[in-house]
Amino acid sequence: MVKVFAPGVVKLFGEHAVVYGRPALAATIDRGVYVECEKGDRLVVETVGVPASLRYFPEEKRAEALGSERFFAYIDAALRFAEELWGSLRARFTIKSDLPPGIGAATSAAVSVGVLKAYSLCAGVEVDVYSLAKLGHRVELEVQGIASPMDTAATSIGGVLKIWASPFRLERLNASLPPFYIAVLPRVGTTREIVADVKALLDRRRSAANVIEAIGSLVEEAHACLLAGDLECLGELMYMNNWLLGALGVVDGRVVTLLDMAKPFIYGGKISGAGRGGVVLLLPREGTMVERVLSSLGHVYYKVSITETGAAAV
Ligand code: MEV
Fold this sequence. Notes:
It is a single chain. The chain is an alpha+beta fold. Helix content is about 40%, strand content about 30%. The chain is built from 9 helices and 13 strands. It binds (R)-mevalonate (MEV).
């Protein structure tokens, strides 16, 4: 039996500006997607903990899972590409996620890359991380129509990465962070819609280009602070990045309240990803107090650490 872990991904700095040619800093975390593959007599996919409602047809003794079609679309595409490349496989795939889907922590990228990696190992094939990243991106493109290569690259390669989206390029940084918190706020809108709204703002208001420019230069400063392990600097830049994202219209009142209440207990914090809810990063000074704030506000949250590796057998 093969078991693969594909990590979730947080954006430390630079989201949205990355769409306009600036680099972003992303990191893989120790929560993500587990994919098991065990050879058998037929191809079966089981999921654990993926939210879905069931519709049952008693005459046919058959159930349909509703609300998980998109999740299965990633699995479907990944299995099809894998079969084309590495031959057909009869196996049971079991997929578990320890992050809720659709929060902006790259769970769809982790599912796509995790299934591809598990399939390859089950088929006895060694795939290098860059090919895995490219294949994962093809899966996301097929399912979503558009997709940035950032998430699939990060979950394939792992660690702290500086990423340029167009033309795609990345650099692995020799950097780490102490454990931090991710709070999960219900999202208003999809990544695609939010990215389109930011583009519309940039088209309407030429001064908005300065915000993109400012995020780009902030990323360079954050890069230096990451290498130096300077948490004061990183926290301050997280706040600045967050308010710049606020100027682009993707930070709402829930995030403002959370950061305000947590302020005495954190170095800094920011949204991570497209925004309007989703993941909020909090770099703690006093972890227990941060947990109290998060609990008092009723937010789902996780304490996470950065992983060194991307999708790999565990
Ligand atoms: C979404 O996680 C990050 C964005 O920069 C979009 C993208 O890079 O495709 C908002």
